[in-house]
From TrEMBL:
HTH cro/C1-type domain mapped to chain residues: 17-71
Keyword DNA-binding: yes
Top-rank lineage group of the source organism: Bacteria
Record keywords: DNA-binding
Natural source organism: Pararhizobium capsulatum DSM 1112
A Pfam family this chain is assigned to: HTH_3
Signal peptide bounds: none
This protein's name: Transcriptional regulator with XRE-family HTH domain
Keyword Glycoprotein annotated: no
């Protein structure tokens, strides 16, 4: 029983490490360079094959611009998760999609197997995101604040606070903040299966 509990804890450290690395938008190679270890070591930790020493864990967490308390703040295996306003992690990069001036306030913990991915997209005036990656699933969004020009395939829509949208994920999409204030969009979609 203790062995399976220890294994679960190792997997949780690995899943948290991968989650933090993806939120930071960096590759395994870059993280390995930051902490001074081999790429294979990072891969083994992320896959739960190796448990990092406390010193290594501290270096990893600091290299990802986090601290240990925020790194272990939410139990990704808990049946539910409540995140108070101002306490949700915000990523300034998306490892897969391009976009300057766009950040993502995570609503759903990043973990393999989740059926939904949810963020509040924070788009600075003039900023845009282009998503040419398509996959199966659906996306729904709601403009909380600001103005947005949303293009789905070849159709462009002007959206404002209170407007919503829905599309299938096999369609390409892009958006652009055409206003003069920060736009915030509640964005929920089926995650891409890797």
């Amino acid at each position: 029983m203790e062995e399976s509990s220890a294994k679960r804890d190792e997997l949780q450290v690995g899943a948290r490490l991968k989650h933090a690395r993806l939120l930071e938008g960096i590759r395994i190679r870059e993280l390995a360079e930051r902490v001074g270890c081999a790429e294979s070591m990072i891969s083994k930790i992320e896959n739960g094959k190796v448990a990092p020493s406390l010193a290594m864990l501290q270096r990893l967490v600091e290299a990802l611009n986090r601290d240990l308390s925020s790194f272990f703040g939410a139990d990704i295996n808990s049946p539910g998760l409540v995140q108070k306003a101002g306490e949700r992690p915000i990523s300034t990069t998306d490892a897969i999609r391009g976009g300057e001036g766009v950040s993502y306030e995570r609503l759903v913990p990043f973990a393999a197997g989740n059926l939904l991915e949810g963020n509040i997209h924070r788009i600075e005036p003039g900023a845009e995101k282009i998503d040419q990656i398509t996959h199966q699933g659906e996306t729904v969004g709601y403009v909380i604040d600001g103005e947005l020009e949303l293009t789905i395939e070849n159709s462009t829509y002007k959206l404002a606070s209170g407007d919503s949208f829905f599309f299938k994920n096999h369609l390409t999409n892009r958006y652009h903040n055409t206003g003069t204030v920060l736009a915030r969009v509640l964005w929920v979609n089926t995650p891409q299966v890797h």
